[in-house]
Amino acid sequence: MGTIIICAIVAMAVAGLVLSLVLYIVAQKFKVVEDPRIDQVAEVLPGANCGGCGFAGCRALAEAIVKAGDLEGKACPVGGAAVMAKVGGIMGLAAEESEPMIAVVRCNGGKCNTHKKVEYDGVLDCASANQNFSSEGGCSFGCLGLGTCVSVCKFDALHINPETQLPEVDEDKCVACRACVKTCPRKVIELRKKGKGNRRVFVSCINKEKGAVAKKNCDVACIGCGKCEKECPFGAITIENNLSYIDFNKCKSCRKCVAVCPTGAIHAVNFPPAKPKVEKVMQENTDVSASIENVEQKQTEKKKEMIATEIQNTKSE
Amino acid sequence: MTTFRKGGVHPEENKLAKDCKIEVMPLTKKAVVFVSQHLGAPATCVVQKGDKVKVGTLLSKAEAFICANVHSPYSGTVTKVDLATDFNGFKKPAVYIDVDGDEWEDGIDTSAEIIREIKLTPKEIIDKMKDRGIVGLGGAAFPTNVKYMIPEGKKAEFLVINGVECEPYLTSDNRIMIENTEEIFIGIEIMKKALNMNNALIGIEKNKPEAIRIMTDMSRNYPGTKVVPLEMKYPQGAEKQLINALTGREVPSGKLPIEVGCVVDNVGTALAIYQAIQKNRPLIDNVLTFTGKSVKTQKNLLVRVGTPLQEIIDYCGGLPEDTGKLISGGPMMGKTIMDTTAPTVKTTSSILVMNEKEAKRGHQTNCIRCGKCVTACPMGLEPLFLATLCEQKRWEDAEKECVMDCIECGCCLFTCPANRPLLDLIRVGKNQVGALRRARTQK
């Protein structure tokens, strides 16, 4: 009996030893050497796996960063500068300064500003509708308003406004992951710089038709008149194919183009609420106050001079 | 009687205009002719504002391999070359012509005399097809001359002529078979000569007894051409299904009919080829059916390309009050007309007026996995799964499930008891997979 037990224990021990040896050899032989920094970088990234960086998820970005050893062209739009600084810390690199971007819907036609000609009764998907017809209003460039962009947004940052039937971007939630930009079959949505204090000026139209044709279908279409191009002091506006485009790298948000646009196609967002008329009055007021200040200054200078001459007179006396 | 093997449906035939003789539509005053009216690379416009054109003057020239010429269907002055709206509402380049009289280019035979003797060699015939801008009038508008350039190692054994007209409502092919019988047969002789063979099969569905009778009588004078009456089933007019019905052969997935030794053309194309080769007449008009249940006067009209749809509607007495929507083409595969100011093109085969009740889509519910769409699919696909894959944007999986084999006949949508928009979804998938494939070849 005792020998059986001993035999069993010895056999198990030998088998265990042999197998552990096999496992050890296999583990050594097929060892995957992974840079520990990949895990560290992946840890820092938000883990949303949105694909906004252009890679297939956060880990893929981490791998790409560690493999390349630089941060050029690799940035997390969700985490922004803060996360990239941390990644830079792990990698021992200086993070690229990237300005925050935001999705901008460049169509303002919608339900209110176009004239419905036909009714769409098909699948509520922009890609499907885009194959079948131009749009209910007749514009073959603008937003179809069926909300495919809303369905792909992982951050709940897009919503269709029931009044206008146009998607609206929630500025606090949008992380500029580009999902909507890629999905939109008509390329209505564009990523633009968020701008100082979230203030942006952009042309809310992508219709490349001639002015009269565009205006026939939509009240707020860009007609390519060129007034904004002439008005812009910074050369930020170009007109191509009857359509104005504002280069966000050159635009200084002066809003002169907004004032001259005859159709209201240029939008300025997040500026303090001031209608053009009120603005003028404000300007006049400032002019007046400035002139008052000038007068006051001149008066004080005169007084000073008078006092100085008086002092001199008294001294000479 | 024979028919194709797999799938198919039986929609109400509604051939309301089948006994209406072809009328010639009066010429329009202001015509708009699209620069490109075919499948393939776009053609280049060769006229300018102010040019005087005659009927048959070249408007746009084919420069690529798969491309077709467009000739002026009118005589008059070119007022501008600009974008024009097609019936889907999209803008395409077009030539605007102010019509003035009806003067034809020299060398075009406009007499009604039938010329039977074929003088040209096969090579000359194919060149002439290209020169005269002949495209497939079955609906796809594929440049016809390309079909006749048989790739090396392949041999055409059958010339399959499509006189099926399986779409409900449409009657234009039926009428030309009855009224232009001999021209069609001479056209087929020309096609056979171009292919250097003598074996043509004309498929006609049995709901066109008059056409079958007249065509069969005529076929006795033309040995090597046989009229085959076919059982009624949609989509028998699709080329792969027609080949299967007439020859029993099956075109492999992703391949062209020539793979099984067939060349397929429509009877309308045969007529156009006759006119091009024997009369030197370019493709400038086609027969169009104006029909619908509420339409009082059904018509088959011979319309020149570039006539605004609205003018045709007005000529036919306007739209009935309960019009729900207009369709260009048949009710199964046609597309909705959204803008009636748009002009006709080479392949506009009908203006179909649907009343309000017919125009509405049914209430959509969930898929109950009944498998009706699988039974109906003539390509042997599983539309319910394909549609789901496309809905979930799983394009690679859809490609593996042969989404590109779909011929967009609409049988699945027609049979679905849950009114699921199967074809709409699959069409999106086809488009996406096509884009994926193009991106792959570019890499």
Provide tags for this entry.
heterodimer, A: 317 residues, mainly alpha, 3-methyladenine DNA Glycosylase II, Chain A, domain 3, Alpha-Beta Plaits, two-stranded antiparallel ribbon, 12 helices, 44% helix, B: 443 residues, Rossmann fold, 3 domains, 6-stranded mixed sheet, 14 helices, globular
Task: Write structural notes for this entry.
The complex is a heterodimer of chains A (317) and B (443). By secondary structure, chain A is mainly α. Chain A folds into 2 domains: 36-91, 3-methyladenine DNA Glycosylase II, Chain A, domain 3, CATH 1.10.15; 101-269, Alpha-Beta Plaits (2-Layer Sandwich), CATH 3.30.70. Chain A contains 12 helices and 8 strands. In chain A, the strands form 4 sheets. In chain A, strands 1-4 form a two-stranded antiparallel ribbon. A two-stranded antiparallel ribbon of chain A has the order 2-3. Chain A has a two-stranded antiparallel sheet with strand order 5-8. In chain A, strand 2 (158-161) and strand 3 (166-169) form a beta hairpin. In chain A, helix 2 (36-44) packs antiparallel against helix 4. Chain A is flat. Chain B is of the alpha/beta class and 443 residues long. Chain B has 3 domains: 1-26 and 115-359, NADH-ubiquinone oxidoreductase 51kDa subunit (Rossmann fold, 3-Layer(aba) Sandwich); 27-99, Beta Barrel (OB fold (Dihydrolipoamide Acetyltransferase, E2P)), CATH 2.40.50; 372-442, no CATH class. Helix content of chain B is 29%, strand content 20%. In chain B, a hairpin with a 6-residue loop joins strand 13 (285-292) and strand 14. In chain B, helix 1 (122-131) packs across helix 4 (181-195) and helix 4 packs across helix 7 (267-279). The mean pLDDT of chain B is 91. Classes of the chains: A mainly alpha (317), B alpha/beta (443). The A-B interface holds A 117-118, 121-123, 125, 127-128, 131-135, 138, 140, 209, 213 and B 83, 85, 88-91, 335-336, 338-339, 359-361, 421, 424-425, 427-428, 431-432.
